[in-house]
Design goal:
Structural class: mainly alpha
Helix content: 55-70%
Order of helices and strands: HHHHHHHHHHHHHEEEE
Largest sheet: 2 strands, antiparallel
Number of strands: 4
Radius of gyration: 20 Å
Strand order of the largest sheet: 1-4
Distance between the termini: 26 Å
């Protein structure tokens, strides 16, 4: 792989890794806050925090005309319902019933759900090498989960439902057009946050201390707001499955934080699982996908730079490698180069 292709991949990989680190911290942090807030109310506060985090950037860029196309409105509604409303409720109810480390480990199911949904419903091209990486990631998750056991099946089912919801969300957000990542995060945060907060306050009537409210909002700002923006930015460059594979580091990061906070013992099986998951990530990130392909003429909006072979329009006083977002057009072109299933390369499998 040439240095240009390596450079194109590095930034979105780092975005997804940073997103994983922030989200991984949310599981043990949310476990502590659940002592004083009901799970539905907490879900609302987390997403309101995410909306607050991106508010300064939510009114910049994007394309109103493209965003208001029916397919993009439907994608956004799906992301709000699955990713902003249902997913966090299932997760936090399950988190209340199980140790934070166990829940962190079970979140590996999100990778599997994302890959299966990407292949079966969203028609994302997935190579044999990617499926092998899925196997490694799942094997690592099973190895990690084995010390805690699978006795608490109700919690496992709830976390699995959350992962399925986020699998839909991951696929939808990777192809939403017309919105910047900050705008997508703000819309999910404000709508899902207010709905869940309203439901939570109406049925979870226990008193809530302001210290818990502040803690929840801060967790939401970093572990949901900033994390989601980074993830969407990476997913639009790498595709839903590949970005989710990198994001699969989040559960293990959550376990590591749980060790530090809860003083849980470090088990040999957990170290072995880390090596298995690292192998899966290496299999994924060393993949090279290249062939001759045709791009139809298209107009859309997303984060891009002018050194990637697809965005050749010119801005005065803007270096070619600087990421920026605005509506732009592509002429029809046929070429060959290494690529991922991003917004420009949505190949269907046969």
């Amino acid at each position: 792989m040439d240095s240009k292709s390596d450079s194109d991949k590095t930034a979105p990989i780092l975005w997804c890794l940073a997103s994983a680190a922030l989200f991984g911290a949310s599981t043990p942090a949310s476990k502590a806050v659940l002592d004083g807030i009901g799970p539905i109310t907490l879900a609302g506060l987390l997403y309101i925090g995410s909306a607050i985090a991106v508010l300064p950037f939510a009114f910049r860029g994007g394309s109103r005309n493209i965003a208001l196309r029916p397919k993009n409105i439907l994608r956004m509604c799906g992301a709000v319902v699955f990713g902003g409303a249902l997913g966090p409720i299932f997760l936090l109810i399950g988190l209340r019933q199980a140790p934070a480390a166990s829940v962190s480990l079970w979140l590996n199911l999100e990778t599997v759900a994302t890959a299966l949904l990407a292949y079966a419903i969203f028609r994302e091209y997935i190579t044999k090498r990617t499926w092998l990486a899925v196997v490694f990631i799942v094997a690592g998750g099973i190895t990690l989960a084995s010390p805690s056991g699978w006795g608490n099946m109700r919690a496992v089912i709830l976390v699995a439902l959350a992962c399925i919801c986020w699998g839909f969300d991951n696929n939808l957000t990777s192809i939403i057009d017309g919105f910047t990542p900050a705008q997508t995060t703000f819309i999910k945060g404000i709508f899902a946050g207010l709905i869940n907060l309203g439901i939570g306050l109406s049925i979870e009537k226990s008193a809530i201390g302001w210290n818990y409210v502040a803690g929840a909002v801060v967790i939401g700002m970093f572990s949901y707001g900033l994390s989601i923006v980074l993830y969407i930015s990476g997913a639009q460059k790498l595709g839903a499955t590949r970005s989710q594979m990198i994001f699969a580091a989040a559960p293990f990061l959550g376990v590591t934080i749980s060790w530090a906070i809860l003083r849980e013992p470090i088990l040999a099986s957990q170290i072995i699982a880390a090596l298995i998951m690292a192998t899966g990530l290496w299999v994924l990130l060393s993949e090279r996908h290249e062939h001759v392909h045709l791009h139809d003429r298209i107009e859309h909006t997303h984060s891009h730079s002018h050194d990637d072979g697809h965005h050749m329009h010119v801005h005065q006083k803007l270096p070619s490698g600087v990421q920026h977002t605005h509506a732009h057009e592509h002429d029809e072109v046929e070429h060959a180069h290494p690529h991922e299933p991003d917004l420009h390369h949505r190949h269907e499998h046969i």
